[in-house]
UniProtKB/TrEMBL annotation:
The lineage of its organism: Bacteria, Pseudomonadati, Bacteroidota, Flavobacteriia, Flavobacteriales. This is Tetratricopeptide repeat protein. It comes from Flavobacterium cheniae.
Length: 268
């Protein structure tokens, strides 16, 4: 991936495809502090609904000095936008599918004999179905009003904030790597799309974790966070609160609770 490719993707991040996402990953591996490349890599994973997005989001947070800026980025309209052309293409392909009328076939009743192995397979199928229904592993869709959920999500990250000073000392002993970093810095300065964020007098947003989860902070996203963290009891409690907050969606939340209980039962 060259400078021209990066510039194009910075202007049209919604067009990032799977191949470009892989190329961006290679850039990030070579230059871990190249924030623009990390941002585009995250966007690519989001576009693909990759199960790696949640993991890479935590990793990016470790390389970010100000997580508030990261939160504002992933909740921006540019980040959450999906390429409309892809949606239109999928809709057209669905419309082109021919439906044939098939004759109804009535199967003769059979005596069912279930062995222990079959029961085990059945449990595995149930667990897989529950995970699919709960959309475990899919990118968590944070919104600008869900800073608390974002902080809750990051609290269990295994990645500690990375000190760039250590990396800079290492690059001083590697002229070739330092030269590449200088090129990146010049690229950042020359491209207004990725200009460094200016300091303002606006006080930093408070996204610190509270000791309890007040009802007004409970959202579907936070419930999903608990689910991704395998905090099944807290996830169930979260959906019970959401049933009280949004009775019109009580059926949906109740189904989620049942699926979580299935996961609990199968994991015991």
């Amino acid at each position: 991936m060259n400078i021209s490719d990066l510039t194009y993707l910075l202007n049209k991040p919604e067009t990032i495809n799977e191949k470009q996402t892989i190329a961006l990953e290679n850039v990030v591996l070579q230059f871990p502090y190249f924030q623009s490349a990390r941002a585009l890599h995250l966007k690519g994973l989001y576009n693909q609904e990759s199960f790696r997005y949640n993991y890479e989001l935590k990793k990016t947070a470790a390389y970010t000095t100000d997580r508030t800026i990261l939160f504002e980025f992933i909740t921006s309209d540019n980040f959450t936008a999906i390429q409309q052309e892809k949606i239109d293409e999928i809709q057209r392909s669905l419309m082109d599918i021919e439906v044939y009328h098939m004759e109804e076939i009535i199967a003769l009743p059979q005596i069912e004999t279930i062995t222990i192995e079959e029961e085990k397979v059945e449990l595995e199928v149930i667990e897989k179905t529950s995970e699919e229904k709960l959309e475990i592993g899919k990118p968590i869709p944070f919104t600008p009003s869900e800073r608390h959920s974002f902080q809750e999500w990051l609290q269990l990250t295994k990645f500690s904030p990375i000190e760039r000073e250590i990396e800079e000392k290492n690059t001083q002993n590697d002229p070739e790597k330092q030269k590449k970093l200088d090129i990146i810095d010049k690229f950042i300065e020359a491209n207004p799309k990725i200009a460094p964020v200016k300091e303002t007098t606006k006080p930093p947003a408070n996204i610190s974790k509270s000791t309890e989860e007040p009802t007004h902070l409970m959202t579907e996203t936070l419930a999903k966070v608990y689910l991704e963290q395998k905090k099944y009891t807290k996830a169930i409690q979260a959906y019970e609160i959401l049933i009280l907050k949004y009775p019109e969606k009580s059926s949906f939340f109740a189904d989620r609770i049942n699926e979580i209980k299935n996961l609990q039962q199968n994991n015991n």
